[in-house]
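Limitations
The structure tokens in this dataset are predictions for the assembled complex, not deposited experimental models. Users should treat interface geometry with appropriate caution, especially where small molecules or nucleic acid strands are included. An illustrative entry is reproduced here so readers can see what is and is not provided.
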Amino acid sequence: MITADAPALPTGAPQLPREHFLNVEYGVKSWLLTTDHKRIALMFLVAVTLFFFLGGAAAALFRLELLTPPGDLVSDHTYNKLFSIHGVTMVWFFLIPSIPAVLGNFLVPMMIGARDLAFPRLNLSSFYLFVIGGLFTLVVMFTGGLDTGWTFYTPYSSMFANTYVIAAVTGIFIAGFSSIFTGLNFIVTIHKMRAPGLTWFRLPLFIWAIYATSVILVLATPVLAITLTLVGVERIFHVGIFDPAIGGDPLLFQHLFWFYSHPAVYIMVLPSMGVVSEVITCFSRKRIFGYHFIAFSSLAIAVIGFLVWGHHMFVSGQSIYAGMVFSMLSFAVAIPSAVKVFNWTATLYKGSVSFETPMLYSLGFIGLFTIGGLTGLFLATLGIDVHVHDTYFVIAHFHYIMVGGAVMGYMSGIHFWWPKMTGRMYPDGWGRLAALIIFIGFNLTFFPQFILGYLGMPRRYHSYPPEFQVLNVMSTAGASILAVGYLLPLVYMLWSLRYGRIAGPNPWRAKGLEWETTSPPPTDNFEKIPTVTEGAYAYPERKETAHG
Amino acid sequence: MLGLWVQLSPDRASTVAGKVDHLFYFLIAVSVFFAGLIFTLILVFAVKYRRRPGNEIPPATKDNLMLEILWTAIPAGLTVVIFLWGARLFYHIFTPPTGTIKINVVAKQWMWKIQHPEGKMEIDELHLPLGRPVELNLISEDVIHDFFVPAFRVKHDVLPGRYSVEWFKPTKTGKYHFFCSQYCGTGHSRMVGWVYVMTPRDYQRWLTSGQPTDPLAVTGERLFQRVGCAACHGQESNGRGPSLVGLFGQTVHLQNGRTRLADDDYLRESILRPNAELVEGYQPVMPTFKGILSEEQILELLAYMKSLPPKEGEVQP
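Predicted assembly:
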């Protein structure tokens, strides 16, 4: 994209701008009461990082328990609390807010040439709702725990569990409004605040992905709020909603829960797909292949994603004909994802490909997401799902999507825009090493779980038959490697805040409005609102010579 | 290589196991093909088009509508094939044949109580004869459980408040795991047991070993008299309640003008909430037996009701 009057890039070693959003004001109050989308994004970054490591610590503990077949490290009750809190924190307090609330908040206004989101104060309230919801979760975690799993299946959660179900669902309920406000803010901003000349089909694909995600956030999250409220009502007042002993229907809960929670999977992975589109183009110096197909596939995923929830219920007692309809629709939602993968791959063709840290994560994303997507076909296949449903096959599949996909995309994005956010570069060598360690650790952790699931090991088992041990040992070994891989970036990113090389406005020579302002950007993002005259990813192109 | 020191495929001990595996292998082949294609292309492009002097500015490439259509249509066509294959198998897996042995399974936190039609009870173990189709009638006393036999490639959730059915036909004698595979609380991973598939002769011997038992229908009849069902529903009742002779499997006309198939769920419901779906022409006078009868006793009553011969003049299918 070219602006009418782009500021001349300084020559020589880049320097930090004299005034930017980080140093314009100091003091706790200037952060806690800020309405600057960039500061709010950084506060979200700190919060979700905390939850990521808490959720990760829980996983480390139960992976350690699973090293041996008998339950010997922690009690069964503690084990159940560990995987429950792992699921709740990772889903609602890391994966869902990660890219939208951190990168989306930081980038949406900058990518569309705006000075802030449409509703800056709503944005701040979104952060506080997240914090309040998070505090509930922390209280649950450190006082009594929760043992329902992140899925809260009834009537276990509503009538039988004797852990802190009400506090946990209250936390998620409140954090849900954070999601709704963020989604609403993005939708309005993208509709109303694009810079002159920035038409819909000139938008970066990250914006398309965030837009599709926002639609899901706004439409699906209320259903979660209603569902969790009903669990609370049944638990406190014993109104028969889900428990058949008092006149309820337990499958009703599953329908309501998955009506939210399946689209929620796309809330987690669509933004990562947006990041990958930005990164792949930048590091192959190319226009994206099939812009329109990638853009519309995001919307197709958002729409069809609402119609597939019943594939979580093939063996629940749902009618077998309903199962068939949901199976068919689940296959349909796989197609747009495949289209994206093919288009990203084709973008590399005849490119000028380099392998800095963000690119390694994005290439990793494509590979792992492909495996996650293909194993999703197994689960959508009715006759196969009967066997592998609720086994480690499912665990492996959704971690390939949520960690191999969503987290790899998030890491890619954090590494790509880190210089923009902080003005400094992290050491790329360490970055690439960490990416490699994470890739290896991830596959060693989760690939054996596909085999475990096919062999029949059920999920959420505190102890297991001895014949499953070898694969579990591999998985735990992988998890240890993965832990090292995730701790490394924490160290070198913090290091870079002080010692990192000054990045300059556009260290990757990337296209996009966010790269045309200083790093870190000023509070108002742009000195002058840019005017856009061309489509996204207009990287320079060489004229083909006669011999091609 | 891995196969030398860990098992890579579960035992295959039912008629559907092989069918599930064939579709599974087909999906593996499809996955290996597509993953291989993507990985190879990425590797080739990454090496061939890596940045080096002379290609810092790459040539322009155009979008290609034909390619987009191809890589939408080919996966779409393939998924139709997989869907149809999977749906057909699913229908087969969940449609029990006739002539099954019907075994009752009552799940509770955290144990399995299993009762054979001959009255033999067992806990966390299931003995089966080889080569006979078996139909499990599953119900839970509390939360949702799931009865999963990996070697048979089948599972079904076990719901409270309604019966679920799971069937299979064992094809290999031996000892196989069964697991609860729906998370059900603290002792979830203790809710496991063994399926023993035996030759028909061994099974008969096992059935008659230990304490002699009465068939379920006989125990049910005694219960029918003891808890007072017979007073209104018995042979000499004075018409206060509808006769239960030949009722099972019939369509009944309800007070509210609707009709309902008298299946296990309806009969169970009518014992626990007698006035919910009242039969036409009767008064809502029956007391509830909720909290009085256990799930096992209800199953015994159902067995008795099913054993009553059909009404005279009506042909039973």
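Some entries come with short summary sentences. For this one: Chain A has a mean pLDDT of 94.
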